[in-house]
Amino acid sequence: MGVLPNPLGRSHGTKAAKANKPNRGAAAAEWADDRLGLATAAKKQIRKVFPDHWSFMLGEIALWSFVVLLLTGVFLTFWFQPSMAEVEYQGSYDELRGVEMSQAYASTLDISFDVRGGLLLRQMHHWSAMLFIAAMLVHMMRVFLTGAFRKPRELNWVIGGLLILLGIVEGFAGYSLPDDLLSGTGLRIADGLVKATPVVGTYMSFYMFGGEFPGDEIIPRLYMVHILLIPGLILALIAAHMLLLVYHKHTQWPGPGRTEENVVGYPMMPVYAAKAGGFFFIVFGITALMGGLLSINPVWKYGPYDPSKVTAGSQPDWYMGIAEGLLRIMPGWETHIFGKTISWNVMLPGQIAPMVLLTMVLAWPFLEAWVTGDKREHHLLQRPRNAPTRTAFFVAMMSVYGLLWAAGGNDILAVQLGLSMEGITYFMRVAVFAVPVIVFIFVKRWCISLQRHDNETLLHGYETGVIMRSPEGGYTERHLPISESRAFTMTARDRDVVLDGSEPVDANGVEAPGSRLDGIRHRLSKALFADNVQKPTREELDEGHHHAEEEHAHEIEAGMDQPADGHQFDGRHTVEEESLRH
Amino acid sequence: MSSEIELRDGETSLEKAAEEPIANPGLPEHKWRPTDVDPKAEKRAERQVATLFLISMAASVAFVVAYLTIDVGDNPDTFGGLGASTLALGLALGTALLAIGIGVIHWARKLMGDHEIVEMRHPARSSDEDREYAVNELLTGIEESGIGRRPLVRNTLLGALGLVGLPFIIGLGDLGPLPGRKLYHTVWKPGMRVTRDVVGTPIKVSDLEIGDLVNAEPEIVFAVNEEGEHELHGVELQVAKSKAAVILVRMEPHEITAAKGRENWSVDGIICYSKICTHVGCPISLNERKSHHLLCPCHQSTFDLADNGRVIFGPAARALPQLPLMVDDEGYLVAQDDFDQPVGPSFWERG
Questions:
Q1: pTM, entire model
Q2: Considering Cα of B53, then B57, then B62, then B68, what sign does the dihedral take?
Q3: Hey, are the CB atoms on B73 and A113 less than 8 Å from each other?
Q4: How far is A106 from A96, CA to CA, in rounded Å?
Q5: Chain A hits for B179, Cβ within 8 Å
Q6: Residues with Cβ within 8 Å of residue A359, at least 6 apart in sequence
Q7: CATH number listed for the domain at residues B182-335
Q8: CATH 2.102.10.10 in chain B, residues?
């Protein structure tokens, strides 16, 4: 590089200047760049802009808790023995000394009682797994409700969905490893789910467990899946997720100076790197505090796995809750036909329903893009209220999730609330279909009301809380216009285009090919957007302002322009040389 | 637009389309922080950040001290079930990490430059020239490979690639044995004694009161050979238990409504069922003494023990298999035979 004339005179000059003052750091950087071309790769990234908003931190929690999982997981592998060979426990925990158990369970007890910091690491690992999945779910809510999944980010949305699915499977594999009574029960339920698969279920079960349940292969196999296969996939998908994030640049909220064409925020170096890096330590630190202060999965209390035992109130980790709820509320349907059995009671809730629910959510961006026919890129986020149908759909899905989650604890609910468990189950069977419909309608109307309120605020100003009495004795509330930047932010959204079905035939009166599909599209378009409230036009705004000014003029004439004491300090007026009026 | 805004990748105006009701007012002016204008505030923030880093150092040292001095051990119940070691290590590590995190973020918020920067976006798609160029390059490559002109080579390659997957799929064959008839049998045999769970003692009719429920296993689960070793252990024992576990319950003989062919399966009101739920295989354990209802703690399937183990509630689809009982010469309860159907969850071939 040194011998070639550098076309960028300035940077060459800088380099030459540095060469005069030998500097170890610069020399090392030059050595590396000569071989790796780092400067070219990094020059655009070093000051890359990231917009700032609290909700953009949710995905970061997920990312950092995954890093914590990798770190604590590596430590755990040093001591954990993934073997189902039978051993007699001789460790420090009195209550189980002399008991026969699998090596996996015995080594988990050793980690908990004989390795210094072992229990801390186990608990940190478990807490960060919960944090990982919870953060992914909340991050997904943020992305969906703000429309951040729109073009060009649809594929990243799907990658995120796969990450959640993998995270849940990874969590299940992980808590199955200690081979305690609770995790063995979980595996037994998994075996039941697998056996319900038509045609190949029995074979799948025998291949999974290396023979008949429980066999002596499942723990070593799950261990491989848990520490190599799924983490590898998650890591690869996270890398793709982040690369696409960098390539697309982050979305941003609309506001003064923020447009679809730019991104406004802090540079990667130093502010964003410091905030993100610092946040890693905060997530790690909170996980450490949780690991030290909050007991989780005390496997020594459950005892080793024994297929003839189970504890009352058996519960999986919370993220398996909806699968558990689905299994519990399903009626006992089974078909016997041609000497074969189809277990609808297990297959539908255990295998099909969770996939259908996930697919519905993952497919939404594609449905929306198809209905609108919108091919533009979208980088400005939408407020949930400005996409009422979408918001209502997602909140309805959330209500299904919540109901199934509650159904997964129907026995605990029955005990805690003094209700009949059967009653709760029958209620849930109806509620999972009825409640989302009610929630959908309610949330959609709520969003539309909020849109109307926004328009009210734009046209007539905000409510000051100042009540005025007219000479006739009537009372009105004084409205004042909102600031320009707030008004701009509220109007910085697209008008919805509703396809009204007016062109089902082409100019020659012949039905265009695919017009039936178009018919569906037009109907969906109406369902999605027809009820939405659009932002006011410039004329409407001007008229609104004009009207307000007129009203104000009347008030002045009537000598009513005397705001209440202290009102001048509402932050919207200059208050210099103002003192509190008496 | 404020003069403090740095523009990158070429300046573009922020003008809005004409139909927008309110024009974009542009970025608000940069607001100076107290730490930007007041050297005292700046110094204070600097000291706060450094203090946080010092706290972190102290906590790291505290972690090492706790690691070396506090016993990890047999009493997990100190300090609310956490153990002194776990608690001390967790607090120290948490503080060491949190102090770094809070310190760095405090530094970023108070002392690092806080000018917002504007960067222009570019469409995600490649330019038309790039697309055309790439497609041409690709077509040239395909052309030079001759894959289109030599269908014999192409088709045989596709065949080879398709088949080379087979070795890897067939290689999974030894993941497990084939199911065969294994799911149809348990270790129960005619004349095998019913023994109490955990202790393994055989049971006489007189041992059970009306209303009693006993968790039981076949006696082979506890059997020992001449050398005093268990006949079944490890995986064999687990598999045997996972299918052969039963519950014995005694009720008034007249309360039992036995199905056809099961009239002599109970002994003086003592009746025996598989303990393995027919839903997804949890061991069933919750007995309602008065109603003879048995509830699975996993998914709440409920079975009527007086009525052939019929499902009366919940997601299970099939009745609990019943083990036919009789009494042997010494008066102990034994099985007449194995179950007459597979126990546990349904599977395709079951019929």
A1: 0.89
A2: positive
A3: yes
A4: 10
A5: 202-203, 205-206
A6: none
A7: 2.102.10.10
A8: 182-335
